[in-house]
Amino acid sequence: MGTTQLAAQEPKYWHLKTILNDALDSDFAVGEILPNERELAARFGVARATLRQALDQLELEGRLQRRRGVGTTVAGPRMGVPVARPEHCWPGSAPDAWRTVECAEAPAPAAVAEALGIAADEPVHTLRRLRMMHGQPVGTEILYIPGATVPGVPGFFAAGGRARAVLRELQSLELDGESRSVELGVAGAEDAKQLERLPGSPVLVVSTRYRSGGATAAVSVSTYRADTCRLTFDDSGSVDVSPYGSERQAS
């Protein structure tokens, strides 16, 4: 990558992002570590703050990954991650790509409590779950289930047994339907740890309401790595319409 005169009519970081994006296709291989920020800034004659803005944007677009203890590497093609199945079913029903890593009883966040129609200080079953694909974590989820939804779960169960009992009781209910929303967010400390990312990394947040008996019976908040995941809403996971999808698939 040689020194390039940046255009004055657009933000420096955006033009630099375009130049770097082209260089990732022509000069680097997937998984290759980029030079450090000082070297890159010197090559392009920009301030490190401008360089960081360009790198942040490329990470958001899935072109780069920042890995703790490794540095900034060229990302491979995003993985298609199905977030819906042809037949609606409760969490934990087969086939379920998630595994429970923690189960506790604690008050839900205020917005979740409001969605569930419960008091803000009412404890709910809180299951933290992890999703793996190709040997790496791609998503973490917190599933909130009020005690009133699963009244048959005894309080004396240990965490592992309680998680299985909660999901089994939930699956015995009739599922009326579910609704989802997707938004861009940043990883908090716990999600970042589970996803092997840095806190503040871009993530995709999928919030789901499960309805039964005319009310919201459970809420899940799933957090996916934005740098490696392409969410799909069918079971194929095969559609790629990114502007550089074909070039990266061939890398």
Automatic annotation (TrEMBL):
Q: Name one GO molecular function term.
A: DNA binding
Entry keywords, A to Z: DNA-binding, Transcription, Transcription regulation
Q: Which GO terms describe its biological process?
A: negative regulation of DNA-templated transcription
Q: Does the keyword S-adenosyl-L-methionine apply?
A: no
Domain of life of the organism in this record?
Bacteria
TM region(s), chain numbering: none
**HTH gntR-type domain residues:** 10-77
Q: Name one Pfam family in it.
A: GntR
InterPro entries membership? Bact_HTH_transcr_reg, Chorismate_lyase_/UTRA_dom_sf, Tscrpt_reg_HTH_GntR, UTRA, WH-like_DNA-bd_sf, WH_DNA-bd_sf
PROSITE patterns per UniProt: HTH_GNTR
The record's listing under PANTHER family reads: GNTR-FAMILY TRANSCRIPTIONAL REGULATOR, MANNOSYL-D-GLYCERATE TRANSPORT/METABOLISM SYSTEM REPRESSOR MNGR-RELATED
Q: What is this protein called?
A: GntR family transcriptional regulator
Recorded source organism is: Wenjunlia tyrosinilytica
